[in-house]
Write a structure and sequence with these properties.
Number of strands: 36
Structural class: alpha/beta
Strand order of the largest sheet: 4-7-10-13-16-21-24-27-30-33-35-36
Number of helices: 4
Strand content: 25-35%
CATH topology of the largest domain: UDP N-Acetylglucosamine Acyltransferase, domain 1
Number of domains: 3
Shape: flat
CATH superfamily of the largest domain: Hexapeptide repeat proteins
CATH class of the largest domain: Mainly Beta
Helix content: 10-25%
Length: about 325
């Protein structure tokens, strides 16, 4: 951030507000994508300041390099195949028939179940558990504490007892997926739970059995997706979104934070609320709800006026009856 920059640092600015902060900072150079006026700072003009900053940052702060090799505390089944360029850190467990590709990194304490495949360049942070038959593509990053391929939540009720339905499917994670810390992804009951290419999943997300997530989706922290729901590509689920089971969510859909979705959502739509509805419809309802207090006051006043008018009419009728009876 510009306010913490030191002499010699590079920062970026994508609008006048951030440019003013960057200009006032100690940073030496600023990445910009707008025709800001020249200042005493070095301005580096690029097509997109934020994208350029993301690309240049690893040059200044490269990720640690893990040397190839297998730590002596690793327990490996003899049938496993491990590429000689892989790094297998301390206290990992690698099951039968596991295939680990080139430049894979298992940092430590990771457990890889039988018949799993990890594609080249995949990186597992500490204490990740991969259940049997999980298929993981290339350049996948799975952060600490994740559980991939655990039992789906499947039970059938009979004679007063919840009987477990065996979950015999698996999980398939395609290339360039990143999964945040403490995410759980259940394996399919019969087929596969699928995470599409390029999708990014934040911390503390729950993905149930037989969910299919398309390519390049964003699933933000504490979201939950119930079983057999299917998401298209470029879907964004904001924080704490909940999707009911067996839904179809179209391509390029956005679901706002804390929304609870109970119905299918078409391509390109934006929904929010609980229960969630299309954004324009929900906004009209929220505006109407904000007007309820004044509306209730008006209705109360009208009821009082009607009551007074009704009493006056009743009194007039009573007086008229008295006059007629007296004559």
């Amino acid at each position: 951030m510009a306010d913490s920059a030191q002499p010699g640092d590079l920062t970026f600015a994508e609008n006048p507000k951030y440019f003013a902060l960057a200009e006032a900072s100690a940073a030496t150079a600023i990445l910009v994508d707008t025709e800001f006026e020249f200042t005493r700072k070095v301005l580096i003009r690029v097509a997109n300041a934020r994208v350029a900053f993301a690309k240049v940052l690893p040059l200044f702060f490269p990720e640690p390099v893990f040397e190839a090799g297998i730590h002596p505390t690793v327990v490996t089944d003899p049938s496993a195949s491990i590429d000689p360029t892989a790094h297998i850190g301390p206290h990992c467990h690698i099951g039968a028939n596991v295939q680990i590709g080139a430049r894979v990194v298992l940092e430590g304490g990771d457990s890889i179940g039988a018949d799993c495949q990890l594609g080249e360049g995949t990186h597992l942070f500490p204490n990740v558990t991969i259940y049997p038959r999980t298929q993981i593509g290339s350049c996948v990053r799975i952060h600490a504490g994740c559980v991939i391929g655990s039992d789906g939540f499947g039970y059938v009720f009979d004679c007063g007892i919840h009987h477990k339905v065996p979950q015999i499917g698996n999980v398939e994670i395609q290339d360039n997926v990143e999964i945040g810390a403490n995410v759980t992804i259940d394996r399919g009951a019969l087929g596969s739970t699928i995470i599409g290419k390029g999708t990014k999943i934040d911390n503390l997300v729950q993905i149930a059995h037989n969910v299919v997530i398309g390519e390049n989706c964003l699933v933000v922290a504490q979201a939950g997706i119930a079983g057999s729901t299917k998401l298209g590509s470029y879907v964004t689920l904001a924080g704490q979104v909940g999707l009911a089971g067996h839904l179809k969510i179209g391509n390029r859909v956005t679901i706002a934070a804390q929304s609870g979705v109970m119905h299918d959502v078409g391509d390109g739509e934006k929904w929010f609320g609980s229960p969630a509805q299309p954004d324009r419809k929900m906004k009209r309802q929220l505006i109407a709800a904000q007007q309820l207090p004044s509306l209730l006051r008006r209705v109360s006043e009208l009821e009082k006026r009607i009551s007074r008018l009704s009493e006056a009419t009743t009194n007039e009728q009573a007086d008229g009856n008295v006059e007629r009876n007296s004559t």
